[in-house]
Amino acid sequence: MSLGSTPSQTVGPYLSLGLPWPDGPTVVPEGTPGAVWIRGTVLDGAGQPVPDALVETWQADPDGRFDHPDDPRGRVPGFRGFGRCPTSPDGDYGILTLPPGPVPAPGGGTQAPHIDVSVLGRGLLHRVVTRIYFPDNAEANAADPVLRAVPAERRDTLVAARTADGYRFDVRLQGERETVFFDV
User: Fold this and answer.
1) What CATH number is attached to the domain comprising 101?
2) What is the pTM of this model?
């Protein structure tokens, strides 16, 4: 007797039930000086909002330090470095954080300030991983080894747009202007 493969399963819809926590979207407490909102919409291949996705972020603090025991440079009180926000029925998310600083690049040099982003959701067998870069850091972005590896005509899908209270970064999972995702 031969058994076939077990059908694959997507990572949702459990996300909206079990993974969010009340202060997940606040990497820093509200009212923190210099805090900004990173807001956006997760869109599917047809350009429709994804109402049951989860956006996770991981980043350095403004001095380029990580809230992690392996970072010997110390920690910023009140800065968690990790955020998690489920999308709303309209596919929207928001993360309150401090703008990150530059971080060391593997093999030497420096990476431009960025936020690592994972998106999980219905229809995805695995999370997709991307980065948010900032328009205020044009010179650092031009020298960033990861961003330079992305075809020039697609780099703008990784750069957030400035807003009145922070930045906007939409994630397009497929289709026209699909966000660049990294194989990690």
Assistant:
1) 2.60.130.10
2) 0.89
